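Need the bound structure for magnesium ion, inputs here:
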Amino acid sequence: MVSQAQILQWLQAFATEIEQNKAYLTELDAAIGDADHGINMDRGFKKVSAQLPTLTDKDISSIFKAVSMTLISSIGGASGPLYGTWFLRASTAVVGKQELTEQDVLAILQAGLDGVAQRGKAQLGDKTMVDVLSPAVAACGQAVEESQGTLEAMQKAVAAAQRGLQETIPMQAKKGRASYLGERSIGHQDPGGTSAYLMLKSLLGVLESSGE
Ligand code: ADP
Ligand code: MG
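Answer from helper R.:
Posting the output first, comments after.
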């Protein structure tokens, strides 16, 4: 089970992870985009971090919805609407819940991925965050099917996300700004995929630190 308090811890941990990786994410985006991904994400998640104390009495779905609205209104660029959509869909997957089973965690990851893929019209292999989120959902799904529990399912999800992230390097971008570079986008790790990996990794970190 993942508690509402752990969800709040996760969002804070992700905001901290983004802050610590702001320069790195921006550097990745400088190679194949417009050098603002770390700046965009940090702006949005600083707002989220400031908002968290107002969400302590809310259920998990309402927390995700509030985060979504904050991200959509404060992050410019492609990643604002995409992360906003991820959290909005996550919110609709767990309506009214105060704690999450591993099936709920899978439902969140699946709904978030579906939302991002739909909104960005991105498919696997387009060199976007979909290439990280999609293998994570598949690995989590398999672990849940084998009744492995939330911690194990997230460990599998993060390992798959990390492999997916490495696989973005040789890809040619088909969506977003990086696609304007054509073949010159090959050989660089996708910035949005990197932040998506950090999102999953920070959730795992919270589960590991509480011995879930
Ligand atoms: P912008 O490209 O507007 O400057 P960011 O730099 O914040 O926005 O985010 C870029 C990231 O967004 C990319 O690395 C990629 O992962 C993701 N992205 C861009 N376009 C799409 C899309 N159509 N579908 C899914 N993800 C996308
Ligand atoms: Mg950019």
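Comments: DSSP finds nine helices and two strands in the chain. Residues 29, 33-34, 36-37, 77, 177 surround magnesium ion (ligand 2) (CB under 6 Å).
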